[in-house]
Structure formats: C-alpha cells, structure tokens
Amino acid sequence: MPSEQWTHPEPGDGPAAVAAQPSPEQVIAGLRATSEGGAELTQLLTPEGERVPSPQFDKYVDDVDDEALRGLYRDMVLVRRADREANAMQRQGQLGIWVPLLGQEAAQIGSGRALKKNDMAFPSYREHGVAYARGVDMKDLLGIFRCTDHSGWDYQGTGFHPYTIVIGNQVLNAAGYAMGQKFEGKVGDDDGEATICYFGDGATSQGDVHEGFVWAAVYDAPLVFFCQNNQWAISEPTERQSRLPLYQRARGYGFPGIRVDGNDVLACLAVSRWALDECRHGNGPVLIEAFTYRMDAHTTTDDPSRYRLSDELEEWKLKDPIERVRAFLARKGGADHDFFDQVQAEADAFAADLREYTFNMPEPPPERIFSNVYAEGNPVLEAQREEFLSYLDGFVSAGEH
Amino acid sequence: MTDLQKLTIGKALNLGLRRAMEEDPKVLIMGEDVGKLGGVFRITDGLQKDFGEQRVLDTPLAESGIIGTAVGLAVRGFRPVCEIQFEGFIFPGFDQISSQLAKLHYRTQGKIKMPVVIRVPFGGGIGAVEHHSESPESLFAHIPGLKVVSISNAVDAYWGIQQAIKSDDPILFFEPKRLYHSGALRAEIDVAGTPQQMFSSQVVREGTTATVVAYGPSVKVALDAAAAAEDEGKSLEVIDLRTLSPLDLGPVFESVRKTGRLIALSEAPSESSLTSEIAARVQQECFYSLEAPVLRVTGFDTPYPPAKLEEHYLPDLDRVLHAVDRSLAW
Fold first, then answer.
1. Which ipTM did the prediction report?
2. Which terminus of chain B is less hemmed in, N or C, by CB atoms within 10 Å?
C-alpha cells in the first residue's frame, strides 16, 4: 500500500497525535493479528481437528452428536465436489462462468444449517453451500451459470432469495424483509423468525451495506449480517476495505459484532444459532464476520496468481474446513474409512448427476425474452414481442417451402 | 352513489393515499419526514397520526436505504409507497431501482412481485436551489420493468395513486410539485366514482390546427397555450400522456392524422428523452399524415439553471405558440 495515501503526523505535532495515528504497517499488522487467531476468533475445532471448549457457545452445539457431525461433513464434501465439478464444466465450455466457493464450505454449511424453515436467507452470488443447505436443488443454480436463466428456484418454499450480483444490494433488501418480519409480530420468542444476509469483505465498502446496518439497527430488525471475509475482493485485499477488523464495525451501529473461524463448521453453526436466536427474541441485529479464505479464483475469469502469493494459499490449506472435521471424527471414533469412502462415492454420483443435467439443460425458447417483465400488461412490449415472433416465424416458413 | 369533493392535487393525493391505506393493511408509506411533518409538501399530512409509526415510517436519510428496504418489504408481501423528497435526490436510489426493483420479477420469472410505488415531486417553477427542479423521468422510462406515471390534475392524482398502489408492478409516480397547491387546478372529484384506466393517454382539449402532446406540469402550459391560440384563430388539440411508460400513443397518432402537426412539450432536456421517443414513433406511424416535422419544445440540454433564469429555461405558452407558428409555416 503506498505510504503517501496515509497521513503521517510530524513529530512536532506532539506525542498524542503521533500515538493516535497508526502507520500503515501497524494497521495491516493489526488486521492480520486479529485475523489469525487469538482471543477474538471464536473457534470450537482447531485446524488439527481438536475440540476447543467454549463456555459461551458450547450449548449451541450440544445436540451435535457423531451422526450430526457426519452430516455436516457430508454436506461440505458434497458441496465442494459440486463446486469442483462446476469449475471443471466451465473450463470445458459448458458453463459461461463459475463462482467457486472452495474453502468457504464451513462458513456456508455452518450458517446455512443454523437456519430454521421460516427464516429467510439473502445470498450474494457465491452461496452455493447455503443454497444446498436451504434445500435448493443445485441443478436450479446451474441455469444461472449456463446462462439459461437468471434464477430458477422457489425462493419462498426454500427461504432462499435469488442471487444478487450487484455488490451489497441484497443487504438493504434483507433489512426490509427483516423489518417486515418484525412488523408482522414474528419475533419475540423461540419460535420467532429471522433473516440472514450474506456478503463479502469487499461489500463492506458499499454504501448499501452501511445503510443496511443503519436500517436494521434503528428498526431492531431480526437480521444477521453474515460477512464471509475471504480476504480478497477479486484482487483487492481486506486492508483496502478497512483499517479495523470488520466485525468491530458493528459497535458503531449499536449491535454486537463477532468474529468466527469461518473454516470451523462447528463454530459457524454455534455462532449463527446464537445470532439467529438473538434475532428471534427481538434483540437483533448481529454482525458475524466469518474469517475464511477464498482458495480458488474470484470467478473463472480471474487469475489470482497476479495478485497473491502461493505461500498464502499453502498456509490456508492447513486450515481446510473439511479436513479438520474428518480428523476430529476419526480421532474420536465417530466415523470409519467406510463412511469416508461412502461419502466420497456419493459426492461423485452427485457431481455426475449435475454434469449430466447441465449437458442436457434445455435452452429457453425465444419468447422467454419477453416473459414476466411486468406482472401486468404492457401493450408496447406486447407489440414488440408479436413483431419479433412473427419475424422469426418468417424464417421457419421460408425453410419449409 | 356519488361523493363530490373539491380538491387540489395535493389534497387529492393525500386522500388517495388514505383510501389505499384503509383498504389494505399491507400498504406502508416510507420516506424522509413523511410522518410527523407530513412530508415537505404535506402530501402525507395526518397519515402517521391515524395509521401509526409502523405504517407511516419516518426513515433514516438515505434514498438507497428507502428503496432497498422497500424492495425487501415487498418480497415479504407489503406494498410500500416511498416518497423521495425532491427528484434531484433520487439518484442514490437509482441502483436499487434499476438493479433490483425493476428486475426481480423478470429475474424470478414472475415468482416475486414488486408492488412498490415511488412518489417523486418533480419539475421546476418554484424558485428553488439546485437539485430541486429537475425532470429526470426519461431516465426511468428507459428502464424495462418499471412503469412511469406523471399526473397533471387532481382527478388523476386521486385515482392514479390508488391504482399505482394496487398494481403489482413497480411504479415511478411523478408529481408536478409546483401545482400541488394550485387553487386554479382544484377539481370536483367524485371520490366514490370509477376511475379510468391509468395507462392511457387522454385528449384534454379538442382542436384541428395542430396537436400538442404533454405530461405533468406541462399539460397546464399546453392548455394555456391552446386558450391563447384560440384568440388568434388557431385550434390546438391537447393530449395528456398520463403514463410515460408504457406510452399510449394511439390517441396521439389519431390526432396527428387529423391535424397533420405535432408539438411535443416537456420541461426535460430534449436529447434522448421522452419527446425524442414520441417524435420517432409518430414519424414511423403517421409519416404520410404529417404536414411538418414533429417539433419539440423542451428544457435545454443543460443542467437546470439557477432559478433566476428558470423563466427562460422552462417552456412557456409563448414558446409553444412559436412552435405552432413554425409548424404552420412549413
């Protein structure tokens, strides 16, 4: 980061002024220090797969027995396998683009599995794991990336809003939705409803995210802001977005902020359940910063080798979210080789099914261009549609004769 | 049963909003100062007092926030009516309008409906400072998925706002701010009557010499010009577009086939505007009926000037009559 972008006080300004202004190196060091563990990072499972007790959060995962843990492991393996298959299909020209989630499985499955049926999730565009956890058929997601559709699932039935590509827009939409839950009296006890909204570290620089924080705070909306800080907004690092850890921003808006190890599925589940619980009982909103890492490119059009060092990637590989659950399960005897093999076989079949579906995905007919622009009629558009379809019919007739 | 009331545009809007809120508990009003103050133009006067703070929301001061949360409330099943204080402040909300509000229905192939109304006081003539007198309606008419309405009289104000709120499509509702409280435009409205279709233009004065098509505050200018032209022995037909997207140009085509001449009138800058669209489509549909090219009387392609100059900037009766003369001289 160029030092001229920072205001350095002169020694003549006095010791207080000098102390109040951290150097850029200090700022970055501070971001990294709170990033890499320590007291501020909530963790229940170490990268080595050892369970760390947490007086505050253990009770939120009391029910996670070996079977449930195997379920979380299976979820993450399936989602990663689907992600890798989609990435490969893009490389083979079968998808227009893919947005990899590699490395973020724990953040997405942990938070996604914390949701209840009546909750609503507002995703950005990388939340394939949350979609899976909400019961969205992953085939329905692929239409977006094969460019046959903009959104193909039942958002109400699944409680999973359409993907939002404009950075940060969905945060305000989620705030409005959560205000609606509050206005309808759906908060206040264990059966209350909540909304969760996903965005990245880059989005925290957007005005809409700031406004979403303001609205949710002043209306006490039952909204969990779930920031997946994967360290990179395409090529821009987190320190280009903020000079303090992102979870600390919540304090400025008057609600709790917490940083969780985003590669720890158990911690993500526990912290999300706690935050959602706060919202259900009318104490929301809450900001969660899931500290994780985007192991692959931003999208398949990106080239991370231009802007980050391979050392960084290697370091994060040691924090893999799936491997630590596998180690934990193996160590405590919660699963054997047969189980791991079986999950892998299931994941391969899952991916093969997605591949076959993608290759045979029907293309929409031309009239789809004009369908559902408006809920009610628009004579100008209808005339345009008729004219275009009759133009197309002309080609068919010419070919037939 | 009839219930006649004599109302200004402002009072008609207020009563229309009240009726919509009474009929449907899902209707919310939201914006800056719309509650206790009743809006800077007092259009929402008394509504918070009667419907409470949860149905008439005095929001934080951020337009993207107002519109973005309205989108989320609509997803939840509410019918938000947002007030933007002045048209020049709508641009922080432009992203949410064009990226989400206009597209969610299309993106989900109809699974999500967006029954959101954005009320926008617009236009000049009130001697205001910068950003308080503009006419940005063409920018919104250009966005697929939105409907754009502009009212010119109290009858349309009363019915139009209720119809807009009932619509399942997102609607930008442009209100002629300088006419809100015009006593001259007070109209007797049968508030228990039946409205006409909102998405239709209307011949508001019949004539034979030339046609003037206008919308919003310009309709009054066109009617004043027609009254003055009559003294000179010219008979102007005046058409109020009422809805700017979709445009109902059928009555305009019909009128041009009768008069052979068209003046398109608007306060907005002319380049790439609604008047451009009207000119293009009229020459396409009425080419053999035209006795002269379609002429436009508009604001200039400049930012809105300091208000001491607005009498020169805003199209007035004389500029309309001058255009009629130019058309007749062809």
1. 0.95
2. N
Rounded to whole angstroms, how far apart are CA atoms B191 and A368? Answer: 41
Query: Which residues of chain A does B62 touch, with a Cβ-Cβ cutoff of 8 Å?
Result: 207, 211, 214
The span from the CA of B249 to the CA of A63, in Å, is 66
Peptide bond into B121 cis (omega under 30): no
| Cβ partners under 8 Å of residue A400, min gap 6 | none
CA of A152, closest CA in chain B: separation in Å?
Answer: 7
Where b means 16+ CB within 10 Å and e means fewer, A263-287 reads bbbbbbbbbbbbbbbbbbeeebbbb
Mutate which: A136, A211, A253, A371, vs B, most B CBs within 10 A: A211
Chain A touched by B110 (CB under 8 Å): yes
Strands B210-214 and B236-240: parallel
Catalytic residue flag (residue A240): no
Mean pLDDT by 10 residues, chain A (401 residues): 36 47 57 54 94 96 98 98 98 97 98 98 98 97 95 95 98 98 97 98 97 98 97 91 92 96 98 97 96 95 92 91 96 95 98 97 95 95 96 77 52
How far is it, in rounded angstroms, from Cα A231 to Cα A300?
Answer: 18
Q: Is the CB of residue B169 less than 8 Å from the CB of residue A376?
A: yes
Q: Is A173 on the interface with B (CB under 8 A)?
A: yes
B59 touches chain A (CB under 8 A): yes
**Closest CB to A176 among B73, B108, B115:** B73
DSSP bridge partners of A291: A229, A261
- Window A:234-293, CB contacts with B under 8 Å: none
Alpha-carbon span A97 to A145, nearest angstrom: 6
Strands B147-150 and B243-245: antiparallel
* H helix intervals, A229-264: 249-253
Give me A199's structure tokens.
């965005």
- B167/A180 Cβ within 8 A: no
User: Does A334 contact B at CB distance below 8 Å?
Assistant: no
> Whole-angstrom Cα distance, residue B248 to residue B132?
29
Which DSSP helix (H) or strand (E) runs through A81? helix A66-91
The answer to whether the Cβ–Cβ distance between B69 and A173 falls below 8 Å is yes
DSSP string across A269-307: HHHHHHHHHHHHTT---EEEEEE----S-SSTT--GGGT
User: In terms of CA atoms, which chain B residue is nearest residue A177?
Assistant: B72
Which residues of chain A lie closer than 8 angstroms to B145, CB-CB?
A: 373-374
Show the tokens assigned to A211. Answer: 């406004």
